[in-house]
Design a protein that fits this description.
The chain has 15 helices and 23 strands. The protein is of the alpha+beta class. The protein has a domain of 241 residues: Nucleotidyltransferase, domain 5 (2-Layer Sandwich). The strands form seven sheets. Strands 17-18-16-15-21-22-23 form a seven-stranded mixed sheet. A six-stranded mixed sheet has the order 3-2-1-5-14-13, sandwiched between helices. Helix 8 crosses helix 13, helix 9 packs antiparallel against helix 11 and helix 11 packs across helix 12. The longest helix is centred in the C-terminal third of the chain and has 27 residues. It is globular, with a radius of gyration of 21 Å. The relative contact order is 0.13.
Length: 500
């Protein structure tokens, strides 16, 4: 009987199940979208129960498509959004409030207060700068603002964590309440060197440590599915890792200086730092990339909040496109954007700017600006944001690079990848399997159940799909980048100045 492995990528706009065969080829894949909830400007929420149901639907779909029985599945690995978090009832599993998404900005003022009083200390301990992006401020908001929740937490009735901890808890019928260092390092609560929750920080945020999950290795059998959670079978749930860091692993970026970018709702670029904790002077954060065999690996992280989400905005809000796939043909139908630049700062700007009050802007609009110009400018904005992160990565890490690996849904867009190579001035490599987040999660789970001898075995699973070489002249590249930066400067601090 053939054996199969499942990787679940729980992403910002949907959940993907990846079914992989014994030769580590993809047998089937299914993505199920979930709702984006916007109660107020700057607020972003998800329904955790809807996400759980989406994962169940996706897993059933890949098994059915490939004609695979549940008993043929060897292990399940899970990657997650990172900072998105929730609080739920430890008996019923019912969330006390929707999950607060990493994009959510409702705690910006509290993050500013933390930065003024404790900024240097928080960065030294966690590798992060205080920001509404991270989970601690969000969990505190739920405890403080949802009626009765803090009292229930103090009575020991509730659990809190990032989405991975909720999903693994549900998969295992409440047996496992865990997270891993890669996800915990994005909460602003974990001591990045020790790999455990920091009590001093928990006291500052007024978050009881008793409601938080245990921090474990990224590759470990945490528990088993129940008959109710996986089609009548008990299967090891054996990996837990943040999505883009799962992709760093799956891309084979195991050596210091290796770099890759995952394109999705946002873009996340990482440079491997090995076992060394280093701090950026130019807006990057330092995170744990994974922990295997008790050893923590680290990386510089440059995040772009809005990438594929901007394309989704063109589809759902502006109705300029029917689907993301058509943007490639539209962008190639014109020679340039007609001088239009789009800064998609819907939720502020992340690294290297870290301006939570920036807002989206199009500039350079003329009477000749068309739908095609807007679509092309949207794709170009993704590449420009990645360029900004790459420059800081090189400066702060001391590592140069001649190739950047790329993955995620938008990496199949040939216009975007070619423009990315042009703006970076280096080659961009896209693997055969673009869903590298779920692929990495599946590998770590297989490693935990003995399918591989070590983490280095991931390299023999990687296959090159396409290489994009830069074609743009240096003079054009410099001009385009200068104009992009002019546009970025004009959208900064918009919310503050607009209020005053």
């Amino acid at each position: 009987m053939e054996r199969y492995f499942i990787g679940v990528d729980q992403g910002t706009t949907g959940s993907t199940a990846l079914l992989i065969d014994e030769n580590w080829n993809v047998a089937a894949t299914k993505n199920v979208e979930h709702s984006q909830i916007y109660p107020k400007p700057g607020w972003v929420e998800h329904d955790p129960v809807e996400i759980w149901n989406a994962i169940q639907t996706a897993m059933a779909a890949v098994l059915r498509e490939a004609g695979v029985k549940p008993e043929q599945v060897v292990s399940i690995g899970i990657d997650n959004q990172g900072e998105t978090c929730l609080v739920w009832d430890k008996k019923t599993g019912t969330p006390v409030y929707n999950a607060l998404v990493w994009q959510d900005r409702r705690t910006s003022e509290y993050a500013d207060e933390l930065n003024l009083r404790y900024g240097d200390m928080i960065t030294e301990k966690t590798g992060l700068g205080p920001d509404a992006y991270f989970s601690a401020t969000k969990i505190k908001w739920i405890l403080d603002q949802v009626e009765g929740v803090r009292e229930r937490a103090e009575r020991g009735e509730l659990m809190a964590g990032t989405l991975d901890s909720y999903l693994i808890w549900r998969f295992t019928g409440g047996e496992a309440f865990i997270t891993d260092t890669s996800t915990a390092s994005r909460t602003m609560m974990m001591d990045i060197r020790k790999g455990r929750w920091d009590q001093e920080l928990l006291d500052i945020y007024n978050i009881p440590g008793s409601i938080l999950p245990a921090i474990e290795d990224s590759s470990k059998v945490y528990g088993y599915t129940t008959p109710e959670t996986f089609f009548g079978r008990k299967v090891p749930v054996a990996s837990c890792i943040t999505d883009a860091l799962a992709a760093l692993l799956a891309q084979g970026c195991l050596d210091k200086g290796d770099i890759k970018t995952t394109y999705g709702t946002g873009c996340f670029m990482y440079t491997n730092l090995g076992d060394e904790v280093r701090y950026s002077k130019n807006g990057l954060i330092t995170v744990s990339s994974w922990q295997v065999g008790g050893k923590i690996n680290y990386a510089f992280d440059g995040g772009v909040y809005i990438a594929g989400a901007a394309v989704q905005w063109l589809r759902d809000n502006l109705r300029l496109i029917w689907n993301s796939a058509e943007t490639e043909e539209i962008a190639n139908s014109i020679k340039d954007t007609g001088g239009l630049y789009f800064v998609p700062a819907f939720s502020g700007l992340a690294a290297p700017h870290w301006d939570q009050y920036a807002r989206g802007m199009m500039i350079g609009i003329t009477g000749g600006t068309s739908r095609e110009h807007i679509v092309r400018a949207t794709l170009e904005s993704i590449a420009f944001q990645v360029y900004d992160n790459a420059q800081v990565m090189k400066k702060d890490s001391g590592y140069d690079f001649s190739v950047m690996k790329a993955d995620g849904g938008p990496s199949v867009n040939r216009f975007l990848m070619q423009f990315q190579a042009d703006i970076l001035g280096v080659s961009v490599d896209v693997p055969v399997v673009t869903e590298m987040t779920a692929y990495g999660a599946a590998f770590l789970a297989a490693l935990a159940v003995g399918e591989f001898s070590g983490i280095e075995d991931i390299r023999r699973c990687w296959k090159l799909g396409s290489r994009y070489e830069p074609r743009m002249s240096s003079s054009e590249r410099e001009f385009r980048i200068e104009q992009w930066h002019n546009a970025v400067e004009r959208c900064k601090k918009w919310e503050i100045s607009n209020r005053s």
